[in-house]
Amino acid sequence: MIFAKIDYINLLPFYIFLKKELKNPAYRAALEHKKGVPSKINEDFRKFRVEAAFISSIFSPRFECTRLGIVAKKEIRSVIVCPGENRNDKDSNTSNVLAKILNVKGEVLIGDKALKRFHSSSKCLDLAGIWYDKYSLPFVFARFCFRKDRKLYTKLAEKFLNTKIKIPRYILKRYAKKSGLSEKEIREYLKLIDYKIDKKGEISLKKFIFLSKKFR
After folding, report:
1. Which residues lie closer than 8 Å to 72 by C-beta, 6 or more apart?
2. pTM recorded for the entire structure
């Protein structure tokens, strides 16, 4: 089992779950070693440096994936476009294209830095919210995919989707300090995310992949 880790708040529940599931200390150590931003994880996954990872939706159709993903029910707050010159976020693949599809101009920001910016500026636009207003669909930002052991990773994904995760207070405090957000802001943010790609999520994903062809 070789996982890649995107160390963003939106995947905090999954990694709390995963650490309990990984009994082998070597697997836990590898999880901390193989981590990075989404664009880097996509590349590591493509080159088979890791067996399983959350990879960007735009990158996922060519691989085998589970029903587990990062899904914005409506708004997301951590994928935004702020006033300024048009600029992609180098950490992203999906969100840069999403901004182009929605014709939203400005600086694209993703992840914890975007979430902090969202709370400090009322002028930034939430891309998932705009997508929902336009299509009445949730937006799927990433999918949990694998390069081998289909049965193993599918079972793991289903177990997570059927497990209620409680985030310990000390971990919340650690992430609050690291991100510059309050514990309340982190809790509210996590309520915006669903991890199951349901029928509406599948429809939304197919629509995004179709619309993205124009910008690749």
Report:
1. 79, 128, 131, 132, 138, 139, 141, 192, 193, 194
2. 0.92
